[in-house]
Hints:
Mean pLDDT: 86
Oligomer: single chain
Strand content: under 5%
Low-confidence stretches: 136-143
Order of helices and strands: HHHHHHHHHHH
Largest sheet: none
Radius of gyration: 29 Å
Amino acid sequence: MRFKYIFSTILTMAIGLCLGLCLLTGCATDKADLKKQAQYDKYTDAELYQKALRQVKKGHHSIAIESLEALDARYPFGDYADKALLLALYTHYQADDYASAAATAERFIRVHPRHAHVDYAYYMKGLISSHEFLGFGDRYFPMERHERDQASAKKSFHEFLMLTQKHPNSIYSPNAKKRMVYLRNMIAKSELDTAKFYLKKGAYVAAINRGNYILEHFEQTPSIEESLSIIIRSYQALGITDLAQNYLLILQHNFPQSKYITG
């Protein structure tokens, strides 16, 4: 009993000591944070913006973000509020912090839907989704881009489409359209790979359905020619020769030099 009492007392003291140290550490951290934040109190919104801009030019993205966050906290409705958000969007993107960049773009569009530079926020949303689709894989996974998950590619395509529809005269629209062509080709290639997989496994109806989906939704992409070939071979395997012949005529008409034309 005496041993249990001593052990309990020691344990209680240890817990109390740990809590005390945590409180002291927490207080020290809070004081450091307050002191760090206090340094921004002497700056105007214009000065904070220029300070952040200088840091961005030097490539000091984290320091620039601190200044922009201080500006946002102190002057949320000031003359530099919109400029700070746009600079924060650019800075997060340059720092590869795509989650923060996407959130900042969304916030800018929500707060400033009629801003002269809202088209930039739409364009950046498309770029951010593109990097989610391309950048990480390029860096770490040696796979073809069309083999990756297409969700980000489709999202990026949609966001570029929103830009071109809402702001057709934007300086970013021509580049967005070029990116949309590339993304569309990648998505179509992914669909084609699925159709080829079904054909290889003998799932001919599924291969035909996927091939027709490509024909309907991805016209004028490089995947059309092989999609026609997959449909033809699938119908032949099913013994439906009249439909196979119809698609063969389409293939011959549109791709007279196609390597898939046999006989």
